[in-house]
Amino acid sequence: MRGCAPLGMVADDGDRPGPWRLRAARSYKGSDRMLRTLGTTFRTLGLAALLAGLTFAAAPAATAAPGGAPAPAVPAAAGPLTPVGGGTGIIFRLSPSPEAPTSYHICTLTAVGRDREGRLVALTNAHCFIDEQGNKLVGAAVYRDASPAGTAFAPAPVPASRPDLATGPIGTVAYVGTPNNLLASGPKGLDHAVIALDESRVAPTATVGSTTITSIGAPPANGTRMCKQGHRTGLTCGIKLGTDGMWFTHLIWTDGGDSGSPVVDGQTLVGNAWGAQHSSPILSIIEELNASGGIGAGFHLAS
User: Fold this and answer.
1) Shortest CA distance to 273 belongs to which of 180, 168, 160, 174?
2) Is 191 exposed, middle or buried (0-12, 13-18, 19+ CB in 10 A)?
3) Residue 185's pLDDT is what?
4) What is the predicted pLDDT for the residue at 6?
C-alpha cells in the first residue's frame, strides 16, 4: 500500500464527471475490491477508513506574479530558519517547476533528528518517493508544504498545497526503503525513507500542530489511545488494535497526504502511519537503518 501515502490526482479523462479523477498509486494495483471492502467495514463501524498511503499528484490553481508571470523562487535569506518536525507537510515531484507547478505529490514528515554522523535528517514513508515505474527517487528535492494544515472535519485541500519558495528546498531524498506493499505483490517493508535536510534553511522543532515529540518508544498495549499528526487531517486519534506481521494496527483516521505522519503515545513517537489503519514501529525502522549503516543510521531526535 502506498502511503500518505500517495493517490494520484490527474486531469479528468472521462472516468467520471468533474475536473479530477483519483488514480490509485502503484501499490494499489489490483486491490480496488479489497479497498472497497475495507471502506465498507470501517464505515459500518462508524469510522473513516481513509488511506493515508496515497500520494497526491495535483494540478494546483495558478499563482502568478504581477503581469501574469509565474512567481519566482525566493532564495533562502539570512535570518530565522524554518521549523520542521514530525507532522510537517512536504511537497515534491513538482512539475514542470516549483515556481509554476501543474502537478505535485504531498506527504508528511514522521520525525526530524540526527544520525550517528551528526547529519540533520527527516523520516517519512518510502512509497512517497517511488514513481509509477517503481524507480526510487533518491536525490529528489523536497519542499515544505506552505498551505495550512487541515483537520479531520476539514482536510487541507490538495489543490491549495504550495511549495514554500521563500525557504526553498528543505532537503533531498537520501534513502528509500521497501514500501509496505500491503495490498500489492512484492516484498513487504517498513515503508520508510530518509531526507537529508539543509541546515542553512531549516531547524528542528519538537512541536507541530497539536503534537510534541520528546522521546521514541515501542507501540503501547492493545486498547491504548494513540494519535497521529498529519498535514491533511491534523490531529486524529484512535486505539491500538494489534499487530499484522511487522506492522501494528489501529483506529486512527488518516487521509491521502498524511502518509508518513508520526503516531504518538502521549509525547512518545511509536510509529509512522501509511494507510489502511496500519503503521510501522519506529524502533523497527531505526533498527533497519542501523543495519544498513548509511545515512539515518543511529537516528535520534534532534535536541
Assistant:
1) 180
2) buried
3) 85
4) 36
User: Which among 231, 238, 280 is positioned nearest to 257, based on CA atoms?
Assistant: 231
Chain position carrying cell 514513508: 125
Enter the pTM of the model.
0.78
Which of 178, 202, 252, 122 has the alpha carbon at shortest distance from 2? 178
What is the mean pLDDT for each group of 10 consecutive residues in the chain (303 residues)?
A: 37 26 31 37 37 46 40 54 98 96 96 97 97 95 97 95 97 97 92 98 97 98 98 97 97 95 98 95 98 96 85
Is cis: bond before 96, omega within 30 of 0? yes
Q: Under a CB-based contact definition with an 8 Å cutoff, are residues 230 and 274 in contact? A: no
3-state secondary structure the chain: CCCCEEEEEEECCCCCCCCEEEEECHHHCCCHHHHHHHHHHHHHCCCCCCCCEECCCCCCCCCECHHHCECCCCCCCCCCCEEECCCCEEEEEEECCCCCCCEEEEEECCEEEECCCCCEEEEECCHHHECCCCCECCCCEEEEECCCCCCCCCCCCHHHCCECCCCCCCEEEEEECCCCCCCCCCCCCCCCEEEEECCCCEEECCEECCEECCEECCCCCCCCEEEEEECCCEEEEEEEEEEECCEEEECCCCCCCCCCCEEEECCEEEEEEEECCEEEEHHHHHHHHHHHCCCCCCCEECC
pLDDT at 45: 36
Maximum distance among all Cα pairs of the chain, rounded to whole angstroms: 59
